[in-house]
Design goal:
Layout lengths: L38 H58 L12 H6 L15 H7 L11 E4 L6 E4 L22 H14 L3 H22 L3 H8 L3 H14 L5 H12 L5 H13 L3 H13 L6 H13 L3 H14 L4 H13 L3 H14 L5 H13 L3 H13 L7 H13 L3 H13 L6 H13 L3 H13 L6 H9 L7 H13 L6 H16 L8 H13 L6 H10 L10
Antiparallel strand pairs: 1-2
Helix pairs in contact: 4-5, 4-6, 4-7, 5-7, 7-8, 7-9, 9-10, 10-11, 11-12, 11-13, 12-13, 13-14, 13-15, 14-15, 15-16, 15-17, 16-17, 17-18, 17-19, 18-19, 19-20, 19-21, 22-23, 23-24, 24-25
Length: about 575
């Protein structure tokens, strides 16, 4: 146990006592030879420092072991197992080393062609049994591209690329990189079985690589067609190309689809309707509508006709890529053979809406009423929107009345909002107010769009006070104004604004501050500031502009230079100001 020395110098003939901190039984006296009293302090200091150093070192080692002792043990155990595993792997490598094939002194293609068919047992066939050499050494290998050498014949086959010698030109023909199976039939089986067993993008890329880099060069070298190779594999060429097309779509390599179809045409492989329709369906799933339409062109070139379901999908493909007339042609072809689906009708109605062809839209709507069991409000609203775009106000109003008279009525709040939009475009405030009254009589509940459209009609018609009255009705209905409400009402301040209108607009801007983005907020506030500066009467003019300016600053809207100059000139005591 660690102890400390307590030295008591009592005289030259007395003793030096050693006192332990933990046990008093170690304290004993022993006679010492006489020595001078000046020596005792030196002896005391030297021995004390040695004991303290030993105690400090022991404590340091103890703390160090507590800190890294566990890590040292783990490291030692890991190192032990690593050495054992390394030694075990080296023993396995020595056992399998004799089974490897050694390729040394690879001859040039000219020497390989002129050399006899047999090979020395101790050279290229090192590591193989004598039966293997006797069986295969006399069979000439199949021809391979320049720069490669083949061992064995038939299936399996191995092709090893030879590095070009210094100064030689690389061969233009590709080196065949065969798989472990090697034959074309085996490669076809590998592709088809792999696609069915491994539904992954990684194998999809691998299957395409096998086809491009292994199967095609092998067929070209052996002078075989895909039909012959498929016959040996007991698979059909259609199965192979169906899998390859699926892989190209799954891997995102859509440009290979047309190349695969070209290969099928070149190899004389028939393509049934189901194959084409499956290809178009997969491409549409990846939003490759242009390619899907290209596949349809090949379908018609082969003399095939798409089914009704495919034709209905083609309408959507053409509409997505902007080929509107082609979409109409697809619909007409479908309508001539069978009754189109509601989806097909809706698609062609949207196509006519993009073309702003109201007469064609109305014709399709009438056809729907004749051939379909019931027309819903969705189709009616698309036709109404097309009529509004084409500025066919009277026809739109008649369609709304017709929808109201249907049993049950097919009009909804969207139908009336569309009608009110038509009135607003013409600035017909009374017509918009009449539509608002009619929808309430129909039992429909107006929404924020309804009130905004009515206010817009009033502003466009030069009735700003009527717009503020509709805004009050909107508040009473429990609806909150939005950024569209702000834009409409601030727009109404452009002509003859009053103090009360500017004040209401200022309050509206405060209420909808969070709904407006910074750029829109800046435009609205500056428009309101300009309107306030042109007001007259009590509370108007510079006083009202100052209120707007102060609210702009509070809502962190940066005033323009013109607004700042106006406020400077409006200050009392300045030239042109109120105190001048």
């Amino acid at each position: 146990k660690p102890f400390r020395l307590k030295v008591c110098h009592l005289g030259p003939n007395h003793v030096l006592g050693l006192h332990s901190l933990t046990t008093l039984r170690h304290c004993k006296a022993a006679p010492l030879p006489p020595f001078h009293s000046s020596v005792c302090p030196l002896w005391h200091r030297s021995n004390m420092s040695a004991v303290v150093d030993m105690s400090f070192a022991a404590a340091t080692l103890n703390e160090l072991w507590k800190a890294i002792g566990t890590e040292l043990i783990i490291f030692g155990v890991t190192l032990f197992f690593a050495v054992v595993i390394r030694k075990f792997n080296s023993q396995i490598g020595k056992k399998t080393q004799g089974k490897a094939v050694a390729f040394k002194d690879v001859p040039s293609p000219a020497k390989a062609a002129s050399s006899p068919p047999t090979a020395p047992r101790g050279h290229a066939f090192r590591g193989f049994s004598d039966d293997f050499v006797d069986r295969f050494a006399g069979t000439p290998p199949p021809p391979l591209p320049h720069g490669s050498i083949s061992v064995g014949a038939g299936s399996p086959g191995v092709a090893i690329a030879r590095m070009p010698s210094e100064g030689s030109r690389p061969s233009a023909s590709p080196t065949v990189k065969r798989s472990s199976v090697g034959s074309p039939a085996a490669l076809i089986n590998e592709i088809i079985d792999g696609v069915r067993d491994q539904a992954s993008i990684r194998f999809a890329n691998r299957a395409l690589q096998i086809y491009q880099e292994e199967l095609q060069p092998t067929l070209a070298q052996e002078g075989m067609s895909i039909k012959d190779a498929a016959r040996q594999s007991k698979r059909t060429p259609l199965e192979l190309f169906t899998c390859l097309l699926h892989c190209s779509v799954r891997a995102g390599r859509h440009h290979l689809v047309e190349a695969l179809l070209d290969d099928m045409t070149e190899q004389g492989i028939s393509r049934p309707l189901t194959f084409y329709e499956s290809a178009m369906k997969q491409l549409a799933g990846q939003k490759q509508y242009h390619l899907a339409l290209s596949v349809y062109d090949r379908l018609t070139a082969d003399g095939l006709k798409p089914s009704a379901v495919t034709c209905s999908c083609l309408i959507g493909f053409a509409a997505e890529v902007g080929e509107l007339q082609r979409a109409v042609d697809f619909f007409e072809a479908l309508s001539a053979t069978t009754t189109p689906s509601i989806r097909a009708y809706m698609t062609v109605l949207r196509v006519h809406s993009k073309r702003q062809d109201f007469s064609a839209s109305l014709k399709i709507f009438r056809e729907m009423q004749e051939r379909c069991s019931r027309v819903d409000s969705l189709a009616l609203n698309v036709v109404l929107a097309t009529g509004v775009t084409a500025d066919q106000l009277q026809a739109v109003e008649d369609l709304v009345k017709e929808g109201d008279a249907a049993e049950p009525p097919i009009t909804d709040i969207v139908s009336y909002n569309t009608l009110m939009k038509a009135f607003a475009q013409r600035g017909d405030y009374r017509g918009a107010l009449r539509a608002l009254t009619s929808l309430k009589a129909r039992g429909l509940v107006p929404n924020a769009i309804t009130f905004n459209t009515a206010m817009d009609a009033a502003i466009r018609g030069g009735k700003p006070q009527e717009a503020w009255n509709i805004f009050a009705d909107m508040r009473e209905a429990g609806l909150k104004p939005d950024k569209f409400t702000c834009s409409i009402m601030v727009k109404g301040l452009a002509k003859n604004p009053t103090v009360s209108q500017v004040t209401d607009a200022l309050q509206l801007l405060h209420d909808t501050d969070g709904a407006c983005d910074p750029s829109l907020r800046s435009v609205l506030y500056h428009t309101t500031f300009d309107a306030a500066s042109h007001t007259t009467g009590p509370g108007g003019g510079a006083d009202l502009a100052a209120r707007v300016f102060g609210q702009m600053r509070r809502h962190k809207v940066v005033p323009t230079a013109a607004a700042q100059r106006f406020m400077v000139h409006a200050l009392p005591g300045t030239t042109g100001g109120r105190g001048a």
